[in-house]
Amino acid sequence: xxxxxxxxxxxxxxxxxxxxxxxxxxxxxxxxxxxxxxxxxxxxxxxxxxxxxxxxxxxxxxxxxxxxxxxxxxxxxxxxxxxxxxxxxxxxxxxxxxxxxxxxxxxxxxxxxxxxxxxxxxxxxxxxxxxxxxxxxxxxxxxxxxxxxxxxxxxxxxxxxxxxxxxxxxxxxxxxxxxxxxxxxxxxxxxxxxxxxxxxxxxxxxxxxxxxxxxxxxxxxxxxxx
Length: 226
What we know:
The structure is a single chain. This protein has helices at 3-14, 49-54, 60-71, 98-115, 125-132, 138-141, 163-166, 170-180, 183-186; strands at residues 33-34, 40-44, 81-84, 119-123, 146-150, 153-160. The protein is α/β, with parallel strands linked by helices. Strand 5 and strand 6 form a beta hairpin. Helix 1 runs antiparallel to helix 4 (98-115).
């Protein structure tokens, strides 16, 4: 069985996962999506409202921003693999609980083992702390790659701000764009021509939604993104 078929079979197996109480509140398992042979894997925190509805990771405004960031380095969404620490949406987009992370961790590590990417970019605190095994917050370590061994594979771990957090913070977005700009070199590829620089005096756009991934009114933003 080739890598794509093996990954698809594992996705089908996890579709009925009941390892933690989130199985009772989720819409569906959001396993992951993308190229099973990807050199770059991006790992976020947990599915949001739109992911829970569609079954696809990084939907809504966060997904749109992620696609723009990838396009800026000459990469399409289909060329990477996208996943989250949790495969099920926490109620009201709350932060993942330790027990939920522990229950879901084997799924993520098995995905990494099957895909064997060259670079894993962790988006936000939860993914960074889980895969680095260190307690540092993303503000301290973003943009600082280091070599790790995960699921018997040696790769570069590259912490980044979560795009959902950058949607509402212009300074964080600038840092995220700069950090993304280094990804081609980490993959051993030439960097694309830089996009025109933004006008530093331009007015920042107003936030469009109160919660990650365009969650409906009354749904809280997860604090672990920062």
